[in-house]
Every structure is written in C-alpha cells, then in structure tokens.
C-alpha cells in the first residue's frame, strides 16, 4: 500500500463524509496474504469474524480498496473481506498469463477453502461479477447469496471498449498529474482531490518519480474468443444459480443497460434487479452509500 496508515485513515474519513456517511469510528482493515496454488493473494479483512461473511471481488484494473467505504458501512453487521484478484493490486501476477474465467473462479474456491468460510455471500463488480457468477454456476451450494454489479454474461461493446481503451492507455510510466487527468476524463463524477489519494492504492511509484499501474496488462489482451466462449457458458448455466441473487446496475452505466439487468434477473431462478442512482459502471466508487444500503437490505 502506497499510503501510510495515517494517510489511509485520513483518506477514509474524508471520502466517507463526501459520500454522505456518518461513521462513529473509522477503522482500518487488516492486510493479510494467503498462498493458493503457488500464487500469493493479498486481501483486506475488516474484522467481525463472528458475523455473516461477505467476500467482495473488484473489477478489472481495480483493487480490494475499491470496496473500502462499502465495507466500512457494513462491517458492524457482517464479516467483510475484499480480495485482490490475480494480476491486480498486491496479489501475484499469473506466471503463465492465465487470466481465464475458470482460473479466477478456482482462485475464489481456493481462497474460501483456505479461510474456512462456510456458506457466504459473494459480491462482484464487472470482472469480479463475472468471476462471482462463474463460482455460483459451479459451486452454488457454498453461497447463501450472490450480488452481481454492472455486468453479466453479455456486456455492451461500446462501454466495455471505452474501459479497455482507458486501462490500456497507461502502458508507459506517467506522472501522477497525467494519470489523474486521464482518470477524470474517463469518469468525471470523481472529486480530483479524493481521486489523487484513491489512486495511491492502484499505483506504484518508480525510482524516477513516475507511476505505473498495479495490474497485469496481459489480462486485458486475452479478452478475445476464448473469453467470449466462457461467458457464453455462464449464460447457459444460469439455471444452476439457485441462491438469492441481486443484479445491480449503475443508472448512468454505458456497459450494462437496464434491459440487460432485467433480462439477467429474470433468467435466474431467484433473481431480482435494482438500479443505483448517480452511479456509472463503478457503482461502489460513484455512490457507495446507496449501494451499501441496498446490500444491507438484500443480505439482511
């Protein structure tokens, strides 16, 4: 983590207020690691081990920290755990560049087995939603509930291409100001001052003072025919997902439209669909307060 503990605490306090939260206490998660099939995975544990477990999976090019405010809002009632998936954040990159949905699904299985989680709630956004759905299709008996945020087996090409262009745009080290400028152009909903510190979780500084992203670009180069075939397999396996499932869309998302969410929820045995206002694709970053409230209502 690039931020110091004090900087991280101050950042959480500031972002919580700006997001409309009023926490009695702002606590930091425990940063832990676990070895799964020779890959080291880093995760954030927000405490309350006796509570009902929720595992959060981030989207592509993001990290476990994208869930910070949601976990802060829910930690008193649930045991919140956020994972850096392979090739992201401070988890290992796949040495064989295997970022298939199947490989990431098995990472989740190995992770929950290693932590000894029984039946748990699985929440995923974008890439994390696809991986969560893959887990549910294959291991639904492990889940008490599933939440899929702004993604499904089918996505809108225009919106997903815009994301791919952004994450591939920073292939070379850049100045922090240049990265912030590109990030704001991509998502103008974000506060520039808050964004500067938020990005510290996603970036690593080089010896010359420039910055690089903490994700393996090879993952985004694999999103071709094989990835599409895996998604099609998930679409064909929706009947297996018998646990209660909440499909969430950001009201301003260009990746996942309302009809996409409604159709996905209808195809699930126990699906329901909601829209979070004032949010684009990255719902947990754009409107964490309303998302946390929706998660609490659904899970509780």
Helix-strand layout with pairing:
Layout (H helix, E strand, L loop, with lengths): L4 H14 L11 E7 L2 E7 L6 E6 L10 H7 L3 E6 L17 H15 L4 E6 L1 H13 L3 E7 L7 H13 L6 H11 L5 H7 L4 E3 L5 E3 L4 H4 L3 H12 L8 E6 L7 H10 L3 E6 L6 H4 L1 H12 L1
Parallel strand pairs: 3-4, 3-5, 5-6, 6-9, 9-10
Antiparallel strand pairs: 1-2, 2-4, 7-8
Concise account of the structure shown:
With 300 residues, the chain is an alpha/beta fold. The protein has helices spanning 5-18, 68-74, 101-115, 127-139, 157-169, 176-186, 192-198, 218-221, 225-236, 258-267, 283-286, 288-299; strands at residues 30-36, 39-45, 52-57, 78-83, 120-125, 143-149, 203-205, 211-213, 245-250, 271-276. It is globular.
State mean pLDDT (0 to 100 scale). 92
Secondary structure: helix percent:
40-55%
Spatial separation of the terminal alpha carbons:
32 Å
* SS class: alpha/beta
Give me the CATH superfamily: Alpha/Beta hydrolase fold, catalytic domain
CATH class: Alpha Beta
């Amino acid at each position: 983590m690039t931020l110091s503990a004090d900087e991280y605490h101050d950042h959480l306090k500031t972002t919580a207020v700006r997001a409309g939260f009023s926490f009695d206490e702002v606590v930091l998660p425990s940063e832990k690691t676990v070895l799964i099939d020779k890959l080291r995975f880093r995760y954030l544990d927000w405490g309350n081990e006796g509570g009902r477990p929720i595992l959060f999976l981030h989207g592509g090019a993001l990290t476990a920290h994208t869930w910070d405010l949601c976990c802060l809002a829910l930690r008193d009632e649930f045991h919140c755990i956020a994972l850096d998936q392979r090739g992201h954040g401070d988890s290992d990159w796949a040495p064989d560049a295997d970022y298939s949905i199947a490989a990431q699904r098995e990472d989740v299985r190995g992770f929950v087995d290693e932590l000894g989680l029984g039946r748990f709630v699985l929440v995923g956004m974008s890439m994390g939603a696809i991986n969560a759905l893959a887990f549910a299709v294959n291991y639904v008996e492990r889940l008490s509930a599933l939440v899929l945020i702004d993604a499904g087996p089918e996505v809108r090409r225009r919106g997903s291409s815009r994301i791919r262009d952004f994450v591939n745009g920073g292939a070379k080290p850049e100045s922090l100001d240049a990265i912030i400028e590109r990030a704001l152009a991509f998502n103008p909903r974000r506060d520039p001052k808050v964004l500067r510190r938020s990005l510290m979780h996603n970036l690593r500084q080089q010896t010359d003072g420039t910055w690089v992203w903490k994700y393996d670009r090879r993952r985004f180069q694999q999103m071709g025919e094989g990835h599409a075939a895996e998604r099609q397999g998930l679409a064909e396996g929706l009947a297996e997902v018998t646990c209660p499932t909440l499909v969430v869309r950001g009201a301003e998302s260009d990746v996942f439209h309302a009809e996409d969410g409604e159709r996905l929820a209808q195809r699930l045995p126990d699906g329901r669909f909601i829209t979070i206002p004032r949010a684009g694709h990255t719902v947990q970053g754009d409107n964490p307060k309303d998302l946390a409230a929706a998660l609490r209502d659904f899970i509780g």
